[in-house]
Design brief:
Helix content: 55-70%
Order of helices and strands: HHEEHHHH
Shape: globular
Distance between the termini: 23 Å
Strand content: 5-15%
Strand order of the largest sheet: 1-2
């Protein structure tokens, strides 16, 4: 009961779509499986508490990672791993279904926020810069960085494609 209450608190009440077409259910399953497989491989400090393709709130599905230990200060490499985990749902859809679908808006927003966090920490040059306040050089570096992360994420999903497909079927 406590676990379900926590899930409902974080992502909302289950509100299943009974007549969702099979191809759309499959897309959501592939998307969430992509997040899950990427998290498993990239975030060894995290476990997976829950993966679902049942709509909750505005989300058609979700993957709920949980920290294996308390974190008070983290290496920026974890932020980069978070970016790739957020990219992995969209990338899995592209790799397995052959094209990108809608449905990754909150993931894209999370990616933007994490890139801004890296910029604020000076990863693209300078300190304390937000995305909207970047110099041309910083902006170009952040774009190159983002492009590199998409490529690396696609390579990861392609390498673990069978894992994504097995999990999506389940």
């Amino acid at each position: 009961d406590i676990e379900w209450a926590l899930v409902e608190q974080q992502v909302g009440l289950a509100n299943e779509i009974g007549d969702m077409p099979d191809n759309q259910k499959w897309q959501v399953a592939v998307h969430e499986a992509g997040h899950s497989v990427a998290s498993y491989h990239l975030r060894k400090d995290m476990g997976l508490a829950f993966v679902s393709i049942v709509r909750r709130g505005s989300a058609l599905g979700f993957m709920l990672p949980v920290s294996k230990e308390g974190s008070y200060s983290i290496p920026l490499a974890r932020i980069i791993a978070d970016i790739r985990v957020s990219m992995a749902g969209d990338v899995a859809t592209k790799v397995i279904l052959g094209e990108r679908w809608t449905g990754a808006a909150s993931d894209i927003e999370h990616i933007r926020n994490r890139i801004e966090y890296l910029a604020w920490h000076g990863v693209f040059g300078g300190i304390g810069t937000k995305l909207g306040d970047m110099t041309k050089d910083q902006s170009e570096k952040s774009h190159r960085f983002t492009d590199e992360q998409w490529v690396l994420t696609e390579e990861l999903i392609a390498k673990h494609r069978s894992e994504v497909e097995v999990l999506a079927r389940a």
